[in-house]
Recover the amino acids of this structure.
């Protein structure tokens, strides 16, 4: 059994966690309880998902990494897709030609095809982080399956290394940015 507060393994007879002192509320799976190594800023997270891990399904994605990227995708829909739909509708009513419609439709489809690999791979890495296989992604094809997969993405990270790798450590990304903005005298 593991402590639900710090994630450390508990001795079977312990009433309190020997590591953090928390009253024994045991869990069968070690979980992260607000003790992640570090977190990425929004823009760094987008760069990570879109550039460094564009088509990578190996490894894990924390809740923060996954939900920040999904927020970015949602903002793209609001800022880019809805205006494209609105402009397309205006052209269809004003002009007799379908050329603007097909041009804007092509831009929209090309954008979504470019975003599809990182959306899928980030979600698969999120499943890995919670201990599930990426094959669960195909549950989206079954009615109601997306709701089950939404629950998977809301689960906490497994605290320790699982079969998909260790808990992601973003300190390299954070420390590079921090040291680039600081002078030696500031440290």
């Amino acid at each position: 059994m593991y402590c639900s507060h710090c994630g450390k393994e508990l001795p079977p007879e312990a009433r309190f966690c020997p590591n953090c002192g928390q009253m024994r509320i045991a869990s069968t799976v070690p979980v992260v309880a607000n003790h992640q190594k570090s977190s990425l800023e929004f823009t760094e997270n987008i760069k990570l998902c879109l550039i460094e891990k564009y088509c990578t399904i190996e490894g894990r994605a924390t809740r923060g990494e996954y939900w920040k990227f999904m927020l970015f995708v949602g903002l793209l829909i609001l800022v880019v897709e809805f205006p494209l739909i609105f402009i397309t509708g205006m052209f269809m009513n004003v002009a007799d030609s379908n050329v603007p419609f097909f041009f804007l439709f092509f831009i929209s489809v090309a954008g979504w095809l470019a975003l599809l690999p990182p959306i899928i791979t980030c979600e698969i890495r999120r499943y890995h982080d919670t201990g599930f296989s990426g094959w669960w992604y195909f549950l989206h094809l079954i009615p109601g399956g997306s709701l089950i997969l939404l629950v998977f993405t809301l689960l906490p990270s497994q605290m320790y290394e699982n079969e998909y790798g260790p808990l992601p450590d973003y300190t390299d990304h954070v420390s590079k940015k921090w040291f680039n903005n600081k002078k030696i005298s500031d440290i």
User: Anything to note?
Assistant: Confidence is low (pLDDT under 50) at residues 182-187. Residues 46 and 72 are 7 Å apart (CA to CA).
